[in-house]
Amino acid sequence: QVQLVESGGGLVQAGGSLRLSCAASGRTSSIYKMGWFRQAPGKEREFVAAVMWSGGVTDYPDSVKGRFTISRDSAKNTVYLQMNSLKPEDTAVYYCAFGRTVAIPAVASAYDYWGQGTQVTVSS
Length: 124
Known about the structure:
Blueprint: E1 2-7, E2 10-13, E3 18-26, E4 33-39, E5 46-52, E6 58-59, E7 68-73, E8 78-83, E9 92-99, E10 113-114, E11 118-123
Parallel strand pairs: 2-11
Antiparallel strand pairs: 1-3, 3-8, 4-5, 4-9, 5-6, 7-8, 9-10, 9-11
């Protein structure tokens, strides 16, 4: 069993930055990847970023590539999402996810545990 606790969300103006954190506890020895997804009202869950726990290889969709950076601190079982040049369309609840395999990191069903979500609001 794994628990994920997210923090760092908030309200920022367009062009600003936020850094999200997600700390994992429980059976953390099973971490193979962690990722971030987001969901805006009335929209489907959207892949944001993923990092492979062992080698640190990252993956991003075109919508955030060059603006967002995912990183992990293996010693702390924590993943971060640095978000720069934020746009109003980035407004959503951001969810941290934990996966026991390295398979298809851009797909939500490839993850096994989820955090409670943290709200990110970007004003114009």
